[in-house]
């Protein structure tokens, strides 16, 4: 009898060892951000929607909700597919990313003065979003194949140069510097966690800062001569937005007015004044300023804390991933979301020049939310590969 009971206990332990991990906390945070995003999106876009040819205050909400539903379905599918399945498509993803960006030249769709979209079967897709996912898959596969070679100078530069062509094309062809920075930043972060030699990154960081400082200095010196391009004018507007209040500094100033008028607790949900025609495209890149205006500093910090919790869950899964490939996939997704949040908040608060970048899960954008949720599906798939330890 005792032996039978002991055998049953052993069976239960063996079964417990086979149980997989599922991060419900991560899922809850993502669902909360999506729900909050839809609420604040409706609040910030209802005025613009009512001014359309066919007035519909919920126009942007309906389109975003549709993309969110499709994205959640894609997330569920990806989460239930073993993540190693995607490794065989890593090179294909990299090549497709390049081809889609190049297709923008003859077939790109222009919106709001930018040519960044492709119309595929009646659906607008932003190739830069495809490239972010593609570079995560390809770099994770490449780093695993290189092994210890990545520690050499040649290996380091090889990995570092992989995202460079795509970043350059996104910057020049789509005129989307923020996405170019994110793509290159994803590569740098994945390389950073894969090599123990941090001195190279210090040198790389100092070199990047030096280039930026020199560029700003030169632009300021050439400001009086005129003839500066759009990007140079944005830098001048960043340094002195009031001097460009009727041009490139207008959006930044209106965003700062929204942040300042919100105070500690905000004016109340739906009570923003800046969204009433003062702040252009309030539902897109500048939606964080509407959060600050309606929900105040308290609401803004609460949302940033949710993103911090999201990053923490990524770190937990990456640290416990079954293998290096899975860990690198999670690190890539973490880098994408973290860099994008930092850039968006920095732009809205005029900490860096206006580059036009959305706030993940919250800003309006079907391609963005779709591919972000697919990346979350990858992370959940890696998490499902974790086995509970028999303590």
Can you walk through the features of this model?
A hairpin with a 2-residue loop joins β1 and β2 (114-120). Residues 1-7 and 9-17 have low confidence and may be disordered. The protein has 14 helices and 3 strands. The longest helix is centred in the C-terminal third of the chain and has 33 residues, at 287-319. The protein is globular, with a radius of gyration of 23 Å. The chain is mainly alpha-helical. α3 packs parallel to α14 (366-384) and α4 runs antiparallel to α5 (127-146). Strands 1-2-3 form a 3-stranded antiparallel sheet. The chain has 2 domains: 22-63 and 244-368, no CATH class; 81-197, no CATH class.
Main attributes of the structure:
single chain; about 400 residues; mainly alpha; three-stranded antiparallel beta sheet; disordered N terminus
Tally of strands: 3
Shape label:
globular
Query: End-to-end span in angstroms?
Result: 25 Å
The overall pLDDT, averaged over residues, is 88
Taken as a percent bin, the fraction of beta residues is under 5%
Oligomeric category? single chain
What string, H for helix and E for strand, traces the elements in order?
A: HHHHEEEHHHHHHHHHH
Q: Count of helices? A: 14
What are the low-pLDDT stretches, counting only 5+ consecutive residues below 50?
1-7, 9-17
């Amino acid at each position: 009898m005792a032996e039978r009971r002991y055998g049953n206990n052993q069976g239960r332990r063996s079964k417990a060892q086979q149980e997989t991990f599922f991060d419900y906390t991560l899922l809850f945070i993502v669902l909360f951000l999506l729900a909050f995003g839809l609420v604040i999106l409706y609040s910030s876009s209802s005025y613009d929607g009512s001014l359309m040819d066919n007035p519909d205050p919920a126009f942007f909400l309906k389109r975003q909700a549709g993309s969110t539903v499709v994205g959640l379905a894609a997330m569920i599918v990806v989460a239930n597919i073993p993540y190693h399945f995607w490794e065989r498509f890593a090179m294909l993803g990299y090549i497709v990313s390049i081809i889609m960006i190049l297709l923008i030249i003859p077939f790109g769709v222009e919106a709001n003065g930018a040519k960044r979209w492709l119309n595929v079967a009646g659906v607008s897709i932003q190739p830069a979003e495809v490239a972010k996912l593609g570079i995560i898959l390809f770099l994770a596969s490449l780093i695993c194949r290189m092994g210890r070679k990545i520690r050499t100078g040649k290996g380091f530069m090889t990995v570092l140069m992989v995202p460079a062509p795509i970043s350059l094309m996104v910057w020049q062809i789509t005129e989307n510097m923020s996405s170019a920075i994110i793509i290159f930043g994803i590569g740098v972060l994945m390389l950073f966690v894969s090599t123990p030699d941090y001195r190279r990154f210090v040198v790389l960081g100092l070199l990047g800062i030096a280039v930026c400082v020199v560029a700003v200095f030169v632009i300021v010196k050439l400001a009086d001569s005129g003839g500066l391009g759009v990007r140079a004018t944005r830098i001048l507007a960043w340094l002195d937005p009031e001097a460009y209040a009727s041009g490139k500094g207008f959006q930044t100033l209106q965003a700062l007015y929204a942040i300042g008028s919100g105070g500690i607790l905000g004016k109340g949900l739906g009570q923003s004044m800046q969204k009433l025609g003062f702040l252009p495209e309030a539902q897109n890149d500048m939606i964080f300023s509407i959060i600050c205006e309606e929900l105040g500093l308290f609401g803004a910090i609460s949302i940033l804390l949710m993103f911090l919790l999201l990053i923490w869950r990524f770190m937990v899964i990456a640290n416990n991933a079954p293998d290096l490939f899975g860990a690198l996939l999670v690190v890539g997704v973490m880098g994408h979301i973290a860099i994008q949040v930092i850039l968006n908040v920095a732009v809205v608060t005029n900490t860096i020049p206006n580059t036009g970048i959305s706030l993940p899960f919250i800003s309006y954008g079907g391609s963005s939310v779709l591919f972000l949720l697919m990346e979350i599906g990858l992370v959940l798939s890696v998490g499902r590969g974790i086995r509970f330890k028999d303590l």
